[in-house]
Automatic annotation (TrEMBL):
Organism for this UniProt entry: Niallia nealsonii
Any GO MF annotation of the entry: mannose-6-phosphate isomerase activity
Transmembrane segments: none
Protein name as it appears in the record: Mannose-6-phosphate isomerase
Binding site for Zn(2+): 99, 117, 174
Amino acid sequence: MSLSIPLFLKPVFKERIWGGSALKDQFGYSILSNKTGECWAISAHPNGPSIIENGPYKGKTLSELWGNQPELFGHYDSEKFPLLTKILDANSDLSVQVHPDDVYAGKYENGELGKTECWYIIDCKENAELVYGHHAKSKEEFAELIKEGKWNKLLQKVSIKPGDFFYVPSGTIHALCEGTLVLETQQSSDTTYRVYDYDRTDETGKKRELHLQKAMDVSTVPHEDADTQFEITKSNASVITTFVKENYFTVYKWEINGRTDFSQELPFQLVSVIKGEGILTINNEMYPINKGTHFILPSNVKQFSIDGDVTAIVSHP
């Protein structure tokens, strides 16, 4: 019989050409350098598996638990842990990119999952924007504008502010832009096809690789804006916003102000605290949580409460 306890996770950090110091400045993380772009907060991907920080599984990776303790995840039917939660610090513009779906990635990327993702804007500079979609009406026009480098004509830019949410299905041309801090919920995949990288060079003077043919293969043309209808549920001490419910994940924002009781009938939930602090209580055991805490609620946690002033992004497959 496995214990009914949360699984707290130690994040993995990644340096990126576009990274900065916001993960240290805003979350207090001990980061690699002032070019740290990604916090892989809840991950069982081989390129950056999280480590359990508490209880009998302390020191094990999430991927080990997924393989060896399937009861913790409600015997969820998937060979791979399906989701990956990241916090991204876009200190400068990310490359314009696109991700494949499961079929294409499975065929051309050694059985990797595709990558549908979504973003919650934690913070951004004034007048920030991002690339979401494009203006080409046909594959021919799409290829021609890329070939001619007419990026301003091709790319669709969207103004953003803190609290915005974007659903980014595979096939969507996209890019986070300078001065943006986001929580990303995605399929557990590390496959990205770069379309344009601003002709940047790394410290050795080399440009990063582009993947134009694969990008043309997988891009949705013409672009389709994702239709997301938010659902909001209010109680005395909480506001729960459901951002998206679709094939790969459901994503919520929990805004808790005071004690809120929850019941869980799901295989498991991923929880990332992005603001505030409070106490998570399970079976009369109390666990402090605060901004930057990430944990999984396994399937055997049927009842729990959170007391405090806490905002969290929560997901499940």
